[in-house]
Specification:
The chain is mostly beta strands. The strands form two sheets. Strands 1, 4, 5, 9, 10, 13 and 14 form a seven-stranded mixed β-sheet that branches. It contains one helix and 14 strands; from the N terminus they run βαβββββββββββββ.
């Protein structure tokens, strides 16, 4: 299990404006699924913005089942106990709503090592993925569903993209959100690059040099030699 970190630096005038408006700095983690087409749908972390914000997480996952699908502004809560899972493993929801996790079959070429498989043996259910953010207890980070509906009986694969979405949103109790309605979002591609650092100034997001002095050139971003005074 590895630990990753992204530092978000926000200009002082932006911090004041955001706090006065009651907005949180939020992040979401990306997953891909052919059937869902939605990469981000759960607020994994949210706090009052400060000049320097550090978001750390591990690539260790847990997974549980949920009776319903995704609903904007709802609180993400599971209906089964979350079980540890690794990409390549399969999570099975049985007809009686018991669950199992089976390890990847290395002899099967049809079972990629970067895919978490959800086998749903009920008429309708969703899969909820968890991770540990900033060393705290596991929090929901993604819900595999067909919008407000659960997945029908079948087998589905979801892949962590390694991307993180940063955005500001009004404080609320719900953790599920619609990324299409976020007007200030910024996707950090390859967020697991060492020393990744992002700045927000003048109403714009920018990737800047990493906290260790190394430039983060991966992930499709144009890296700027850019100083943010906070």
């Amino acid at each position: 299990m590895s630990r990753y970190q992204v530092t978000v630096r926000i200009a002082a005038e932006a911090v004041r404006a955001l706090r006065d408006s009651g907005a949180n700095l939020c992040c979401a983690f990306g997953f891909q699924c052919d059937e869902s087409k939605v990469e981000y749908n759960i607020i994994a972390w949210a706090e009052d913005p400060t000049p320097v914000n550090t978001i750390s997480w591990t690539n260790g996952y847990l997974i549980a089942a949920c009776k319903r699908g995704h609903t904007d502004h709802s609180l993400a809560t599971p209906n089964t106990v979350a079980l540890p899972i690794t990409p390549g493993d399969k999570f099975t929801l049985n007809p009686d709503w018991t669950t199992t996790v089976s390890a990847r079959d290395d002899t099967s070429p049809s079972n990629p090592s970067n895919i978490i498989t959800f086998e749903n043996d009920t008429p309708s259910a969703s899969a909820m993925v968890f991770s540990r953010i900033r060393g705290a207890r596991a929090s929901p980070i993604y819900l595999l569903s067909m919008g407000p509906h659960g997945m029908i009986t079948g087998q589905y694969g979801m892949r962590p993209t390694g991307n993180m979405m940063l955005f500001f949103m009004a404080r609320e109790e719900g953790t599920e959100f619609d990324a299409g309605k976020v007007g200030n979002g910024f996707v950090v591609r390859g967020a697991e690059d060492r020393g990744c650092s992002v700045g927000f100034v003048g109403g714009k997001w920018r990737v800047i040099k990493g906290v260790d002095g190394a430039e983060s050139r991966q992930g499709g971003h144009e890296v700027e030699d850019w100083t943010l005074e906070v």
